């Protein structure tokens, strides 16, 4: 029943390295601020004090392309105030040469409907746009892969913006995780006709699922199967949890379920019914479980009220939550 690809086992959980600072070999660091950079930022009404407080090292770099980057942003349709906000939020952008910025614009426009939307994305996620040129080939390959899945372009854009690390790494890693998700879905009885929509919703809810080792998904599904969930019930859970299923781990689920069962005095079968109605229960630590269970008991409901799962440190831009069905 569970034939999740064996190759996933060779990918052990490992820390994903942060994107390197965008510095080129020709960049030099001076003990004094680059006055041309400072003056150019002043002319653009950038909050210099904010830059000095958060990333003062940028002001000491040479060469810098402050005016060139600002002109390219304006050429995309960014107003002066938007340019100032982008440069204040992500001053490293001025270290990107114009050719690099232009290449990124062309790459992003292959999935963005128009430049206005691209500017909006850059304003919210500047670090995702101003990446090292060494990632360009991986970004291009990953875009081609996700487009080959017939995903909505807006979903691909969201993945690039909110989870840039998944696009900076080799495409083979994303291919392996996507195949693992697809195989889990079909082996649990999911219909091929609904695969694309299911995968699209999963990636939209939690883009960071791509950064998880594939065997995490396998371990979580095996644990839940061992707790008595049927194949059909596992598919329901996988569909409800979507990308959040990879944020779980067997040890935490075991403790949470044991605590919940003890607190409610219910049978294993009753506990499974509660989890199926409210998969978010799998997320709560003991203290949160106690307050939620007390609230549900007071209301006469067997299900926890709809709440957001606890945030995960690796997923800062998480979108909608997993709720509880009535």
Q: What secondary-structure arrangement, pairings included, does this model have?
A:
Blueprint: E1 28-29, H1 35-43, H2 48-55, E2 61-62, H3 66-75, H4 80-89, H5 98-108, H6 115-124, H7 126-129, H8 136-148, H9 153-162, H10 165-168, H11 171-187, H12 195-205, H13 214-226, H14 231-241, H15 250-264, H16 268-277, H17 286-298
Antiparallel strand pairs: 1-2
Helix pairs in contact: 15-17
Give structural notes.
With 326 residues, the protein is an all-alpha fold. The protein has a domain of 104 residues. The chain contains 17 helices and two strands. It starts with 27 loop residues before the first strand and ends in a 28-residue tail after the last helix.
Short description:
With 326 residues, the protein is mainly alpha-helical. The protein contains 17 helices and two strands.
Assess the beta-strand content as a share of residues.
Answer: under 5%
- Based on DSSP secondary structure assignment, what is the total number of beta strands? 2
Low-confidence region ranges: 1-26, 299-326
What's the arrangement of strands in the largest beta sheet? 1-2
SSE pattern, N- to C-terminal: EHHEHHHHHHHHHHHHHHH
Distance between the termini: 30 Å
Secondary structure category: mainly alpha
Rg measurement, Å: 23 Å
Fraction of residues in helix: 40-55%
| Discrete helix count | 17
Major beta sheet summary: 2 strands, antiparallel
Give average pLDDT, whole number: 83
Overall form? elongated
């Amino acid at each position: 029943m569970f034939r999740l690809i064996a190759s996933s086992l060779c990918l052990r959980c490992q820390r994903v390295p942060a994107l390197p600072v965008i510095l080129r070999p020709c960049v030099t660091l001076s003990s004094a601020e680059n006055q041309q950079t400072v003056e150019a930022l002043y002319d653009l009404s950038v909050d210099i004090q904010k830059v000095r407080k958060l990333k003062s090292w940028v002001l000491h770099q040479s060469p810098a392309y402050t005016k060139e980057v600002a002109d390219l942003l304006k050429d995309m349709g960014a107003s002066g105030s938007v340019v100032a906000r982008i440069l204040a939020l992500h001053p490293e952008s001025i270290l990107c040469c114009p050719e690099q910025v232009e290449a990124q614009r062309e790459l992003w426009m292959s999935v963005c409907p128009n430049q206005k939307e691209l500017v909006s994305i850059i304003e919210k996620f500047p670090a995702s746009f101003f990446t090292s040129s060494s990632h360009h080939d991986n970004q291009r390959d990953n875009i081609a892969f996700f487009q080959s899945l017939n995903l909505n372009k807006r979903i691909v854009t969201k993945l690039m913006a909110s989870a840039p690390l998944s696009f900076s790494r080799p495409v083979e890693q994303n291919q392996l995780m996507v195949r693992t998700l697809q195989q889990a879905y079909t082996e649990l009885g999911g219909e091929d006709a609904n695969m694309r929509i299911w995968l699209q919703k999963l990636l939209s809810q939690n883009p960071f699922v791509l950064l998880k080792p594939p065997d995490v998904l396998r371990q979580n599904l095996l644990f839940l199967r061992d707790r008595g969930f049927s194949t059909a019930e596992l598919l329901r859970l996988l569909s409800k949890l979507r990308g959040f299923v990879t944020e779980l781990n067997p040890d935490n689920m075991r403790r949470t379920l044991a605590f919940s069962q003890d607190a409610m005095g219910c049978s294993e079968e009753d506990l499974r019914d509660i989890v199926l109605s409210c998969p978010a229960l799998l997320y709560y630590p003991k203290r949160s479980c106690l307050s939620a269970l007390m609230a549900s008991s007071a209301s006469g409901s067997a299900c926890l009220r709809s709440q957001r799962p606890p945030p995960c440190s690796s997923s800062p831009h998480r979108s909608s939550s997993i709720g509880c069905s009535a």
